[in-house]
Known about the structure:
Layout lengths: L4 H32 L4 H21 L4 H17 L2
Amino acid sequence: MANHPSAEKRARASKRRAARNAQLKTKYRTAVKKVRSAKDKEAALAEFRRTAKLLDQLAARGVIHRNKAANNKSALAKLLKKMK
């Protein structure tokens, strides 16, 4: 347990950040699922654009690693290309 005021503040901030990151990761996973489960290519493309933007934002904030964002976007683009 933190004893110094600065350590207590860091613990509070860390708890807030962890909660925010968990919420954003859930949002990210849901967005990826929406792209994968889209029925037609147009709907999937629209979802992909939103998801790609979200991935870039999360990578910029440090919620996920930038390479993970790039790998996810690449995999989703590959899936879109195979769609008819």
